[in-house]
Each structure stands twice: as C-alpha cells, then as structure tokens.
Amino acid sequence: MSNVLVVAEVKGGAVRKPTLELLGKLKQDGHTASAVLIGSGVQAQADTLAGHGAAKVYVADDAALANYAQDRYVAAAADAAGQAQADMVWLSASEFGKALGPALAARLGAAFAADCTDVTISGDAAEVMRPAMATKVRQKLRLKKPGVKVVTVRSGAFDAQPAEAKSADVATLAAPAGDGRIVVKEVVQEDTGRVDLGDAATVVSVGRGVRGPEGVEFVQPLADALGAAYGASRAVVDSGWMPFELQVGQTGRVVTPDVYFAIGISGAIQHLAGMSGSKLIIAVNKDPDAPIFSVADYGIVGDLFKVVPVLIEEIKKHKS
Amino acid sequence: MQAELMTLALVAALAVFAYSVGTKVRLFARMAPENRIDRPWQRLGLLFRIGLGQSKLVARRKERSAGAMHFFIFWGFMVLALREIILFGNAYHPGFQELLPLLGSDSPLGLGFLYTFLYDLTEVVVLAMVAIAVYRRLVIRPRRLDLNVEGLVILGLILGVVVTDLFYDAAKFNLVALWGQDLHLLHSPVFGAERTWAPFASLLATGIAPWGHAINAGLVEFGYWLHVGVILVFLNLLPLGKHAHVISALPNVFFGSLGYPHTPAALLDLEDEKAWENEALGVTRVEQLTWKQGLDVYTCTECGRCYDICPTYVTKKPLALKWMNDALRHYLEEEADHIIATGRSSDARQLVGDVIRHDTLWSCTTCRACEEVCPVSIEHVPRIIAMRQAQTLMQEQYPKELTPTFRGLEQNANPWNIGYDKRADWAAELDFEVPILTEPPTEAVDVLMWVGCMGSFDKRSQKVAQATARLLQQAGVSFAILGTAEKCSGDLARRSGNEMLYQALARENVETLNGLGVQHVVTQCPHCLNALKNEYPQLEGRYEVFHHSQYIARLVDEGRLTLAPSVEGTVTFHDPCYLGRYNREYDAPRKLVGATAKEAPVEMRRSRNESFCCGAGGARMWMEENIGRRVNEERVRQAVEVGATTIAVGCPFCMTMIDDGVRQSGRDDEIKVKDVAELVLESLAKPGTEPVQH
Question: Which residues of chain A are in CATH 3.40.50.620 domains?
C-alpha cells in the first residue's frame, strides 16, 4: 500500500473528470490517496475530491493562483508532496499535467514517466505502461529510483468511482512564492456558446451534402438532441456556411469523440485524418461508394434530408 | 574646345555612373556567394536565345505584339550603340566614322553606307515603337502594366535620343547641300553621298531647309550636345530605377540558372551547427539571398508578365511577384550602406514579416509559371523556398495547419499519420498479386512502381494506382512495389521549407532504393517524380524515373497496349506543374488522352507551359486557402469555358483539387475528373478492334 498524491485539475470552477479517474484507480487498488487543490476560490472542491477517495486534501487557495503560474504551482504541489510524504505524485496527461508534471519531477528530483495508460505500484518500484513510436508499440517501464516518483496518466485510462458524500480533511498550504519569471496576465477564451469540439463526447459534422447554409441549420437539431458538438468538413467551411473554428480535418481540428456522426460527408482523406480516431463512426451519405463508409462502423445510404429528421425523432423518443 | 567639353562631360557622367553601379556591385559582393560563371558556353547560349533572341518576349503568342515592340527597341539600341561611338568620336575628330574599320567611305561593299541606312531606318522604327509603348500605357492600359512617371520619362528619353540625332543629321545634310560646308560626311564615287543613304533624315532635312542657315547651323550644334546630354543623363538614370534592366538584363540572363527547370532546391547542410547558431539556414536576412538573387530584383522591370500568369495573383491573393521584387529592391537600397559597411543588414525591419508579409510568402504554389514567362530569367521560386526554409527551420513560423502534416510525415511517413503498415493495402483489392521488393537483385523486375502517399492511402487515388498496376500487368511488364518500405518522397516538406524532414525522408528512401539496386521507377505522382528524378541525385540517389503517362505511352507505342477510343464528350487535359513546367512533359499524357477520347480533345486557354496550377503545389494542399478566390475553382471555370465534360489529370493532387472544384461548382453530374491511366484502362481495345485515328 502506497501513499499517492493526486494533483487536481480544476476547470471552470469544477474538478475535471481525469482527476477523478486517478482517484478512482487508487481507491480500486487500495492505495492511500491524498489530493492537492491549487487555484483561486477552489477550496469548495475539496469535498468532491474527498468523496472520490482523497483521505486528505491540501489546498493552496490564493488570488495569485487564479491563472496557471508554473513557479507557484510547482511550489504548491511540491509542498503538498512533502507534507503528505507521498511515494508517488499522479497528474493527468492534459495540457495542465504536461506543463506541471515534468517541472514538479525536476523540483522533487523524482523519476518521471509521461503519458501512461496504466500504473502498478509494487513495493518501492512502480511499473507503467505507455504508448511509444506513434502508438505503434506499448512500453512497460519500471521506475526504480528510490524516493518519490511522478507520472502523468492519459485521460480515460482509468474509471472514476461513484462519489460518496464526504467532507474533506483539509490542510491549508502557505501561499507559494513565485519567482515571477513567467506571469500569465490574461486567459483569452472564445465563447461559442456551444459544446467545444475538442472536449465533446459526441460530434456531429456536416459536409457538402447539406448543400447550403439552410442545410447546416437543418442538421443542427440533431447535434442539439445529442448534446453534441457541431462540426463541418472543409467544403462547408470554404463555402462560408460555417466558421473555420468548427472545421474537422487535416488542416482543422482533430477530434476523437466516442461517437462521430458524418452527415453528407464523402470522406476525403483530408477529413478522415481529422476524425478517424473516433471510437464509433456513423455515416449518412447518398453515395454508397463514398469513402466515408470505409471507416464508418454504421452507415446509412440515403438522402440526409430524409434520414436526419428520423434520427432526431428516434433520439428524442429514446431520451423521453 | 569640343574635345575638352566632351571629355569633361564623359568623365563626369562616367564617374557618377561608376559610382552608382559600383555601389550595387559592392552590395552584391556582400550577399551570399553562388557560382554562376561555370559552363560559359552554355551561358552564352542563354544569352543568345533569351537575351539577343528575346525569346521570352516574342515567342509567347498572347504577348507577341508587346514582345515584338520590345524586340525592335532592343535591337534599335544595339544598332544605335555603334552610332553613339561615331557621334561621341566626332567631338575628338570630325568625321570619326572614317577612322573606323569597315565603316568609312571606302569600306568594302559600302558597309559604311549600309550602316547609315540601317541606323536611319532604326531611328524611325524606334520612334514608332516608343509611340506604341506610350499608346499602350495611356490608352490600352493592359492590366499587368502600372502607369508611372518613371516609365514615361524613360520613353521620353528614348524619344529624345532618336529625335535629336535625326535633327542633327538633317541639319548637317542641309549645311552641306545648301550652304556648302564640309562636315566630313561619307562620300564615295560608287555609293554617292551619305545623305542618299539616310532617307528619313534626308526627308526631315527637306522639311527644315526653309528655316534658314542660322537655325540649321544652330541645330547641328544644339542637336549634337542635346543628344550627348540625353544619352549621359539616360545612362545615369538607369541604375536608379526599374529600368536598370537595360544594363543588367543581359548579365542576368547570362548568369541565369543552367539547370532550369530541373534545378533542385538548395541542399542545406543541417549538420552545420554554426549555421544553426547564426541563423544561416535558408534566408532570414536579405543579404543571405545570393548575389544573383540580388541582381534579379534590380533587373525586374515590373513588366508584370508574372502578374496575370500567377494563380495566386489571379485569385486575389497578396502575392504579386513584381511587387515582391520591388519591395526587395527598396529594402536592399535601404540596407545597402549597412550591408556594405558591416556585412549584414540592420535590424530595423524583418525581411519576412515586415518587408514580405507571411501571407505573401506562403501563398506561392511553386508552380513556376512566373519563371516560365519572365523575359529576364528572374528566379522567383528558389528564393521563396529559401525564405520558407528560414521561417520553418529557424523561426518556426509556418502556417499552423502544417503541424499535423509534419507530424504525420515524421511518425508514419505520410501526411495524414495513417499507420505506415497500411501503405500497400490498396494492392490487396486487385485480382492479381503485386510483388513487393524486399531484397536485391532486382534484375527480374523491369520497373519499380512508386505509389506515393496519395496512391497508397487516398481512396480516389488508390483507383489510379490500381489502374496503373492493371495496365502494367496487361502489358506484361514485370514490376514491383516497395510496400511498407516506401515513404513520402518529401516534396511537400521541402516546398514548405522543412528541409530537415525532407532530408530525413529522402535519405531513407534513397537508402531503400539503392539497397535494392533499383534503376527504373514509374510513378503516378509528378511531385514524387520531381523529387526522385531531380532532387534525390543531391543525396546520391540516381534513377531513371518516368511519369506513368510516359511509361504507358511507351507501352502503347510498342504495341503492348492497344487502345480503342471510348471516352465520350469533350475531354481536356490539365497539365500538372511538376510534370509540365518542372519536367517538360506535355505530349505523353496528351497522346494518351487523344487516343482514348472519341472526339478530338480541346485545350484550355491556359495549357502546356502556361498551364494554370490546381492550387495544391508548394505544400498548399496542406494549408488553408482563406484569402481571395480558390485556385481550383478558377481552374474548373477555365475547363467549363471550353465545354469540357471530362477533365483529364495526371497528378493525385490535381485530381483532388479539380474534383473538389467541380463539386463546388455544382457540376459534378456533368463533369468527370479522370486520371490518364483510368482513361487508358477504360479504352483498352478488346481483341479484334482497331484503334481509331483522329
């Protein structure tokens, strides 16, 4: 049984799911988990972490931590790792973890492994699995260096456990001092008011088959019914029917949702490059020879203007 | 007195001229070195053909009238150069012409008199051409020309040169004939008086005779010195503006690229750590352009032939090459003192970013139409690649859409990052087996089929690969593929300035090909063709490489494939830039298209060496096209103009772009886009049918 500190990631005032997945795994494997919360106004999240299995929650809540600041965040996490006498520190391999993990490992003088898909702790050593060579092979690494070890773990590698109602055992950390070499002044975010393509579990994309801006509006209710992000192929964007930010493909966004609907998209290779990593692909196209069907798990050959209303109706029925 | 005055004028004018030209030469000496004096005989060939022959000016049908006008002005200058020697000599020795070999009164065959006739005629011809040039600028106003004062001043000076000489001659004739003065004109018992050989000046003389002795005598003096003045002012204005080409065009043509159009991009030494430290890979600073590229921008006359031939300019993108030349020249002028003094430009402005905007640099499709039509051999594309190299390697300032493409090339050797193990899957759909070359010797194989990333992975292009394989098999060619050992040729990496990635891919391919002892290669992708044929030799990869249209055309010639035309409707062939302009193959695909189409194929208004790019070259396939109209849609419009119902292509990128353009135009029910190999496969004669001749 080991003592593991999870560095919690908070976005939009809530703990992100990958953090809860890490806690879920630790609970499942019967390790002692603690967590560290860093940010401004994040104290309220401590109970969530406790509910998912954090025996102790270290909190660094300070106005200076409102935006990610490498120096201060590393200092706070290192402080927590020391106080918790952690054998390991786990972070999710998100942008946050990718930035913080290696710096924290360096600060602690710790062994480090990035982008792991599995972690097994046995005694003093830890074994991790991680994809390498462009995911062609999987590596098994053994972190043998004595002392604390730091890993980042891919989101989705583990499952979060159901939450219990629990109030946290909170230890407040002193406000970490920064060296001031890097200061994040402002975070600019574009607010589309829609589900973000990159985060979405379900994506609906439309192609040239929608024939015009009216067609784009025609399919929109399908995305709404599914709570999905709405995307487009290059042809739709080039025609000016949808903005470039919503383009899926080689030169646009690369998405890997659980479910991807390709509506009226023939499936040019430039588009496939942006979505073929989706877990389940459903295509609607009138041309049975369209290349999209070669990557689709389910395909409907038919006129999208007839198929989509039926889909919407069925989904609504299923939901109610 | 005349002699002293002339000496004074000459010394002053030549000193100023030497100073301004000397400044340029010192500037060029500080720019990157490049050997452009090798193989002088071949260079003389360029000089004769492009320079003296004015081939780029007169050979283009669409520009023939303007080209002819320039031809006459150019040769007018050549003829009158000798006249100037005579005139300037007259200041030192009246009747200077008599001293010149073969030009005096007693010259054999009356050469001196014949020359008199020639220059007299030339002066009138030049006068007419100047009138046409002014008319074009003020009345016709072709889009490629921008009216400016400098152009008119220069035309005015040319006018001045001939008019003053005509008046000088005419007045002289009058002084001799009417007032009996001896002005050392040519005279011989056989050929008579000089005047009879100068009909136009003579006519003018008759016209001004009534003005009387005083005015005629004054005109001789005044006309002479005005002429000398105009010439010397003209000489000194030339180096200052866009008319420097009068001086620099012939040298620029002489120093032109001997390898054109096959010249590979410059191979950078990526192991050179100093170069990385000094930001000396590619062109970050203007002095890193070669001296020839410096001479290029001074030679640009802003004639604008590169304007309306350029697919990006036509579709309203910011790249207009003559303005790029103009911007570079002004920037060089601005930095000249600093560069001459210190060897490097000041940091006042960035070459890329401030002088050349990023959008401008990345608009180029590297189609090379500009170089094809430039009358003075300016090399536009290499310097664009060189600036991209610096942007990509040193500044990491390339369009961000290229990032996943580069990653795909790094990880799986294809732009989409599809698993490399799937590279030969296209061949599994064939009803025969395509052997995969794994070890030498390869004598048993006639040719290696290089499939390329598009043919390997893109569904549409896979059909072309399959058609090509079927044709080779039908013709009994023994061929093989590399299978999963083939990697992207690296063309797109090189055109986007990612020389490191290009060299990594190219070296691995060369190692594979050399290791297998491959000698003959056939490919459906002109970009692979160009890389393997023209660029791999830099890395010790030397193969005989054919475009599939060339190889198939040969099989047809040898009778190994027999065709019976089967393609209905109007067919037109779209030339791929990297097959046509880069590798000079226009006929093989046309021959195949002609042999498969039932009607005689038609040509689009932009075809062969003036073909219009599809928009995908220069790695543009992998970048967004957000500015102006889309190049591929413009090309489809040109095909619609000639009523094409089938657009034949010979490149997988053209296929994608043209097909996309057709769909976007909503004409996908009327117009088909087919590769030449597919047309040939459709038209293979059943045994017993005879091919039809057009």
Answer: 3-172
Of the candidates B239, B651, B671, the one whose C-alpha atom is nearest the C-alpha of residue B460 is B651
* Adjacent-strand bridge partners of B520: B544
Name which of B459, B621, B655 to mutate to probe chain A: the one with the most chain A Cβ atoms within 10 A of its Cβ.
Answer: B459
Quick: pLDDT tens for A299-317.
999 999 999 999 999 999 9
AA letter at A66: A
Which is it for strands A170-172 and A56-61: parallel, antiparallel or unpaired?
parallel
**Closest partner residue to A273 among B416, B419, B664, by Cβ?**
B416
- Least Cα separation, residue A320 to chain B (angstroms): 40
A62 DSSP assignment: -
Residues in contact with B97: Cβ distance below 8 Å, sequence separation at least 6, in sequence order? B86, B89, B103, B104, B112, B186
Residues A279-309: b if buried by 16+ CB within 10 A, e if exposed: eebbbbbbeeebbbbebbeebbeeebeebbe
Write the DSSP string, B495-533: HTT-HHHHHHHHHHHHHHHHHTT--EEEES-HHHHHIII
- Nearest CA-CA partner of A78 in A95, A101, A99, A94: A101
Q: What is the pLDDT of residue A32?
A: 92
Mean pLDDT value of segment B574-583? 97
pLDDT of residue B542: 97
pLDDT digits (tens, 9 = 90+) for B117-153: 999 999 999 999 999 999 999 999 988 888 888 889 9
Q: Do A250 and B663 touch (CB under 8 A)?
A: no
Q: Which residue has the tokens 């106005």?
A: A63
Average pLDDT over chain B reads 93
Helix (H, G, I), strand (E, B) or coil at B486: coil
Distance CA B155, CA B246 (A): 12
In chain A, CATH 3.40.50.1220 covers 202-319
Rounded to 5 degrees, φ, ψ at B628 are: 70, -160
Domain A3-172: homologous superfamily in CATH: HUPs (3.40.50.620)
**If you average pLDDT over residues B631-651, what whole number do you get?**
96
**Which of A235, A251, A294 lies at the smallest CB-CB distance from B622?**
A251
ipTM of the complex: 0.77
- If pLDDT is split at 50, 70 and 90, which confidence band does B688 have? very low
* Amino acid found at A116: C
Which among B449, B440, B525 has a CA at the least distance from the CA of B480? B449
The predicted structure's pLDDT at residue A155: 82
What pLDDT score was predicted for residue B692? 47
Rounded distance between C-alpha atoms, residue B241 and residue B375, angstroms: 18
B371 burial (CB, 10 Å; 0-12 / 13-18 / 19+) is buried
Instruction: Give the pLDDT confidence score for residue A1 in this predicted structure.
Output: 65
How far CA A186 is from CA of A96, A208, A247, B454, B626, in Å, comes to 16, 38, 26, 43, 29
A134 has pLDDT over 70: no
Range B309-321 average pLDDT = 91
Q: Which CATH superfamily is A202-319 part of?
A: TPP-binding domain (3.40.50.1220)
State the smallest CA–CA distance between residue B603 and chain A in angstroms.
28
pLDDT category at A245 given cuts 50, 70, 90 is confident
A6 pLDDT higher than 70: yes
Both tokens of residue A55?
Answer: 């025996």
Nearest to A208 among B459, B623, B663 (CB): B663
CA A289 to chain CA centroid, Å, is 35
Give the one of B401, B460, B664 whose C-beta lies nearest to A251's C-beta: B401
Residue A289's closest chain B neighbor by CA? Answer: B459
Report the SS3 class of residue B574.
coil
The span from the CA of A73 to the CA of A92, in Å, is 15
Give contacts of A272 with chain B, Cβ < 8 Å.
416
Three-class DSSP category at B569: coil
